Each structure stands twice: as structure tokens, then as C-alpha cells.
Prior knowledge:
CATH topology: Rossmann fold
Strand content: 25-35%
Oligomer: single chain
Structural class: alpha/beta
Shape: globular
CATH class: Alpha Beta
Order of helices and strands: HEHEEEEHEHEEEEEEEHH
Radius of gyration: 20 Å
Largest sheet: 9 strands, mixed
Number of helices: 6
Amino acid sequence: MKKQIAVIVSLIAAAAVQAAPPLKALLVTGGCCHDYKAQKDILKKGIEERANVVVDIVWASKTTTNKEGVVSVVNDGSTKPALPILGNPDYAKGYDIVIHDECAADIKDPALIAAVLAPHRNGIPGVNLHCAMHSYRFGQYNKPVEAGADNSRWFEYLGLQSSGHGPQAPIAITNVDKDSPILKGQPEWTTINEEHYNNVKIFDNCRPLQRGKQVVKDKKSGKESTTDWVVTWTSMYKNTRVFSTTIGHVNPTVADARYLDLVTRGLLWACDKLTDDGKIAPGYEAKK
């Protein structure tokens, strides 16, 4: 009888795991300098193929009409994109995590920035990709900001302050935190031509995971120089988990399996669905 009960309990537990509801992720995207029209779909498809996650998209888009009268929906490519979330502190209500993949360098209003940060202050984890690091900034952001200052809030959430990048060239990525569950089984690799974001300031809440080295040759002198920056990290923001990577400028990189694996694992870690040994928590593996 005890054996039968144990089998029944085991079956019930297995059924509960299989019935785990998907994580609900909100992807916020749009803005300057990137092909967000394509990248939003690459990210959604790639993440949903790798884990039990449903990705909804909020995109800063606009319509255009050509000479023939054909109407098209395109990315709002401004540095101040009309992101639908702006001014709404409850934009992430009902979601388990927010993925920031916007490029909004000229959204400078502290009230708007506070509303973007509101869900994360209230416990909703975050994932931040590439140009999200160069968004919501104002003041002298080229110099290390002071913790607690109005213009430090977005950087404190990220855990790292970046202000710019050099020319596009391959980045050699190395894993520096061998104990991170996000990096368990993940390769070191070299990207195609990519933007290498600088590190102006690394905050105390930042845990670097990967560094990138990029060799750039000066066009005039032919002299080579090397930059070595943190490119992937985690941070704790008011007891909320945050994962970030500066990699991901061009479509082929975003579509690279190694990149999508990293982003998905970062998302799972932020939602506390990755075990210490790097395995996806039961029920949150990709559905077959």
C-alpha cells in the first residue's frame, strides 16, 4: 500500500511539473540605431524555443506610406521613441519579467525614468540587452555618476554604467565567473563585427560574468588598440534579480544560438528558475 501511495504521489508531482504555467515576459523594444522590427521576433522565437516562456512584445513603431500609397509598419528609429510604456508605472502588471531592448538615449525626464523602473523597484526581475544600457540617461553620464543622484537611477538598476562604444569589430568573449549557473555549459566565443560598450563605472551590486576583448586598428595610423570590458553581468536591485549583456547589435548576433542560449538562461536565472548547477527548473524546460 505504501508503495502504491508513493507511486501516486510521484505521478501527481510529475503532472504538476508538466503543468507548470509558462513564465510571462514583456519585451520592450524600439528606438534608434537597430533593426528592432526583426530583432523583436528573433528574440521572441529564440526564447520561447528554449524555455517555457511566453514573450509579449511592446514595440515603438510607426506607419509610413510610400509613393505608391503602400502603408508599412516600421520601427520608430528616434533616440526618443514613443514607447507605449512611458509614464505608466504599472506597465508590467501581470508579467513575471521585463526584457528591456530599447534604444532611448534622449528620454531624459526623471519622472518617465522612474515609471520605467517602478516594476523593478516593486520586485519584477529584469533583463537588459545592448542599447538598453545607453537609454534613460542625462547629465554628465560620460563621467561616473554618484549613487543616489537623479541621473544614476537607471545605472544603479543595471549595476554598470556605460556611455559609448568604438567601431564595430569582433569581440572575444571569455567567461570570468565559472560558478555562475547562467554560464554552466556555455561556451566562450568570438562574435562577428559588434559594438563593444565601455565600462564607466561598475557598481557594488554588479557581478561580472563575461568580459570581452576587441582589437581595433586606427584607419589613419594603422596602430592597433585593445579594449577589455565587462560585457555580461548580473545585479541585485532592491532585492530584485537583474541580468544584462551589452552584446547584440546586429541581427546575426541576436540570432546566434550562443547568444539566445545566454539570454534565455539569464532570464531564467532572474526568475529564479535556474538551479545552482545550471539546470532549468522542472517545468520550465522548452516544451517539446
